[in-house]
Amino acid sequence: MSQEFSTPMMKQYLGIKQKYPDCLLFYRMGDFYELFLDDALVGAKILGITLTSRSKGKDGRIPMAGVPYHAVDSYLTKLVKAGYKVAICEQLSPPNKKGLVDRDVVRIITPGTIMDEKALETKENNYIVSITKKDSKIGIAFADISTGEFVVDQQDVPDPLLVLHQLIEHYRPVECLLSSSLYEDSEFIKELRKHPTMHITHISSWMSQVRQAHKTLTSHFGLHTLESFEIHSLLFAQEAAAVLLTYLSDTQKGNISHIRRITRISHGDHVILDRATQINLELFSTIREHDQRGSVLSILDRTDTAMGGRMLKRWMMEPLCDHDAICERLDSVEELLLHQKNKKLINSHLERIHDVERMLSRLSVGIGNARDLVNLMNALQEISEIALISDTCTSSLLKNLFPIETREHVQSVISEIRTSILPEPKITLKEGGIICDGVHPRLDTLRELLSTGEEWLKKFETAQREQTNINSLKVRFNSVFGYYIEITNANIHRAPSGYIRKQTLINGERFITAELKAHEEKILTAQEEIYRIEYDLYQQTLEKVLSETSHMQSVAQTIGVLDCLCSFATNATEYSYCKPKILFSNELRIQDGRHPVVEKLLTDTPFVPNSVTLDPIKQQLLIITGPNMAGKSVFVRQVALLVLLAHIGSFVPARSAHIGVVDRIFVRSGASDMITSGLSTFMVEMVETAAILHNATEKSLVIMDEIGRGTSTYDGISIAWAVASYLAINEASHAKTLFATHYHELQELAELFPTRIQNYHMEVIEEKDGPRFVHTLLQGKSTSSFGIAVAKRAGVPEKVIEIATQKLQELEKDRDYSADEKTHQLKQDDPKLNALKTELLSLHLSTMTPLQALNTLAALQERMKQ
Questions:
Q1: 822 pLDDT exceeds 50?
Q2: Pairing of strands 588-593, 581-583
Q3: In this structure, are residues 772 and 765 in contact, taking their beta carbons and an 8 Å threshold?
């Protein structure tokens, strides 16, 4: 952008553009936003708009492209989603000002700061993240400027990148702020690129902002210390937070007063769900289509408000692990279920509530309007009605949702808006039509003047017709020429000598008189004063409303909670869910459980329910065998989902459920190649398995589905055997485990660990036409895999089926011979076997790491082969 220009306008453009070199500059010119030079080339290509040019003397032909100002939001959304930043440059002085109109940037729009309703998913947050890292320490801050949420974390851990990935997967930010050192760290950037939907922004002034971090935070929140936010000792978190807050302030030109508090991310208050678990349970999207339809969320979400939809997703990401808090939610759902009249009334009010959080945010950053205020008032009125209903409730959560103090603040806001703002105000803020009568005496006087002015014009027109004897004479007004008298050509000769010619038309002439000119000045002066008074009054009302932001944000959160509870009650009614009993013990007992999604997808056949009991002492691990299509995977996942639903306070699809509080839920299932990470299927499987073995406790629920399938059969069986054994014998965990497998050899573990491991299988009935899958879980071993039968049913060519059948018979014959030989050897009093037995019994398994256990088991296996 070294080009120089001769025209004042292009000099102005260049001066502004140099301040925002990383942005596309939307330069306001009348009714259009124009892009020039390189920006115009980008805009024309991305937006599909016409590329034109502007020719100005020595400047030559200047590329340009423009979009109408009234439709700018859709264009901005397209550019931001393509990864561009946009600076909005507005006209700051009246267009009739002599000389060049004053212009400057009033807002910068980036992926993480976009506020347009059409660009944001109603029930999704739009997070932006700031990251600082040094050695093993990491500081991180997340914000959603569209709702006012602001959270931070700081950790000192051996693997900070693992923590970073977990947090990014949890919040899914669309934009990431980095210092120069991290931005230039190729390895670190490579890690961040594993999250392809997150745009990376380099903050060149990072270090200067860091030096002012404490001052930046305390100044914004009006505090002397950060102790109230519990981050006073977290210097890395403060650094990330200050940079993020400064970035938000810079993009919104200081208008971020709706960000009222910092919340520290808590890791101990919720059940931990790692990325693999979220994906394998298809909580938010399906594995194959990556579509929300068919996900657990698509079934559970019956919320009526945007706040409720966002809250439900947060609850699913952060299930409770506090017994009393879970029971409090369940009791509330039960009350709503039993008192359907109250619930229907609440739902009818919820349906009429606009997105309070985002309305407040738009108003705070200066892009809202009077209709947002009216919608806010209407939403608060509905909330006031809901509060009255909550007074009749008995469950502790419902009856305490709306404290008296909060209601008083809500009523204050309602009164302020109702008194000041018209029920249907204009969208534009500087053209009047916003403020009620009776608010401002001078405004009422001026409005009366305009009202009588219209009557004056009618009388003036009548008088001129009589004076000139021209019945077609008209007195009119337009914004360009002001007031005028219009006479057709046929009557021009009758125009009085006192008429002053103003404009010549094809069919006539327009005139002005001294009297009409005086009236025009009077009216226009009054109109301008009305606009100014109304705008000032709007700003005063807005300031009073925004002073109550924290209370209204609290109310919005409360509505989100209530909406989720009502959604749970709706599901319980329509889907026949039961209230789970939350235990203090680590037991799990589910009677006739059902998969919440699969049962809805089955339209031709009824879903087959199954029961399960897990107890860390009596029946800790179930080996579940059975062929494909028999229902193993559906069953093990449904158990995890029922436990998850209970921990978010939802009723569950079962006849009855007794569920002990868990600390983590692990679901390890078939993995796909992660090419972008350089990890194969089997490596992904082993990494996830290792994470489970290292982190599972006796309060965890572990779901293992087909471990060891990514390698050779013998390797796979050995690893699956070792993993199941370790989960059973490791005294540090004893996690409740469902172990689904095709390896029938693992069923022998039940004989080795009779007090820990039990065998179960999915029932299959052999019939003349092939196996019939009953989808019922039965206790005991499975004898057949039915893999070839499944292949035949899938349409595999008959010749392939014949070859597979023949080969299977050969392999089974060899296996039977080998088994007989081993049995003969085991019956003998073998000194080597006794030595191995002694060594096995002497192992201290509780002190061994998973890797040590696997290595020891592999060594013993090799010695057995010798």
A1: no
A2: unpaired
A3: yes
